[in-house]
From TrEMBL:
A Pfam family: Peripla_BP_4
Protein name: Substrate-binding domain-containing protein
Family: Belongs to the bacterial solute-binding protein 2 family.
Signal peptide bounds: none
Keywords from the named record: Signal
InterPro entries found in the cross-reference section: Bact_Solute-Bind_Prot2, Peripla_BP_I, SBP_2_dom
Localization per record: Cell envelope
Primary site of residence: other
Chain ranges of the Periplasmic binding protein domain: 26-282
Length: 330
């Protein structure tokens, strides 16, 4: 009898200990992995969550907002403690927040803001500032001329924020009559084909363009191909974003003027750290700003991005270990 009592006692203890030590489970809902950067975000996020003692479960919606909602439900059913979301659609993802809250799961919006809902946290870069950095750089070189603006899709709030940044810089020059915006379009996806379509459509009537500001490097590469078709690559200023390998090579080749290097590692680590803290019942640190998402002031972390040009490639992406020198120059 005494023996059975001891065994039972042990069993209860084991159950209690394993129950208390359950690892925090973090769901990471991503849009797609088409753009190079997202593979890095994914890898770094999972690495950090695991390093902090948690389990990360990743789902990729491949640009389908409804699929992302189903994936959210599935992760909630798998008892995730926190959801980190790269929303496919800025509004439809509000449904994810509702589903999560019904199950007491807090939501962190990653890189892109989820609009008009009771979002808990937002971790990103200062996207208006990125737009300003791009436009500022190009207008310093060419304060007069014809500018084409190619934004990302309207389903991504970052596309609007970047354009806001561009216009902060361009508007005074447009008002002075120095700059004319000859193309101003939102693409359907963050893909090269989109910018290629937009630019070839413009270039079939005229070759008159001095600068092209693009929402990201994928779009910039499509614009460069359109310029190559008419042998004008290298003669038009081009700004992109993400510091992807092709863009940095294009900068070296003289076909692209700048890209923007986002601190992906800091972003992924900050999100992983916040998610684990929240799962452990603690308040996340460094949420030192709030961002209005149309419904509430969302506690946020906004990191700074930096410019990569032909002169500072070594001092930026290479020295930060974001890419190897041989990858660029081979
Ligand atoms: C945006 C992001 C960009 C780019 C793009 C394509 O939301 O801000 O850095 O990667 O998505 O996925």
């Amino acid at each position: 009898m005494k023996r059975i009592g001891i065994i039972l006692g042990w069993l209860v203890m084991v159950i209690l200990i394993t129950g208390c030590n359950q690892k925090p489970k973090i769901g990471f809902l991503m849009d797609d992995l088409n753009n190079e950067r997202w593979k890095k975000d994914k890898e770094l996020f999972v690495q950090k969550v695991e390093e902090l003692g948690g389990i990360a479960v990743v789902e990729v919606a491949n640009t389908d907002p409804q699929k992302q909602i189903l994936q959210a439900q599935s992760l909630i059913d798998q008892d995730v403690d926190v959801l980190v979301v790269v929303p496919v659609d800025l509004l439809e993802a509000g449904e994810i927040v509702k589903l999560a809250h019904r199950n007491y799961v807090p939501v962190i919006s990653y890189d892109r803001l989820i609009k008009d809902c009771n979002l808990d946290y937002y971790i990103s870069t200062d996207n208006i500032n990125i737009g300003e950095l791009q436009a500022n750089y190009l207008t310093k070189i060419s304060p007069v001329g014809k500018y084409a603006l190619i934004s990302g899709p309207k389903s991504d709030y970052n596309a609007y924020l970047l354009r806001l940044g561009w216009m902060n810089i361009l508007q005074p020059l447009i008002d002075k009559g120095d700059i004319e915006v000859v193309v101003d379009e939102f693409s359907n996806f963050w893909l090269p084909d989109e910018a290629y379509r937009i630019m070839t459509n413009y270039l079939k009537n005229t070759q008159d363009v001095d600068a092209i500001i693009c929402g990201n490097d994928a779009l910039a590469s499509g614009a460069i191909i359109a310029l190559k078709d008419i042998k004008k690559n290298g003669n038009v200023l081009i700004a992109g974003q993400d510091a992807n390998i092709q863009a940095v090579r294009n900068i070296v080749a003289g076909d692209q003027t700048i890209t923007i290097y986002k601190p992906i590692e800091a972003l992924a680590f900050a999100a992983a750290d916040a998610a684990i803290k929240i799962a452990d019942g603690e308040a996340p640190s460094n949420m030192n700003i709030t961002v209005n998402n149309g419904k509430r002031l969302v506690p946020a972390i906004l990191l700074e991005a930096s410019i990569v040009n032909r002169q500072n490639i070594k001092m930026t992406v290479i020295s930060e270990g974001f890419m190897g020198e041989s990858e660029i120059y081979n």
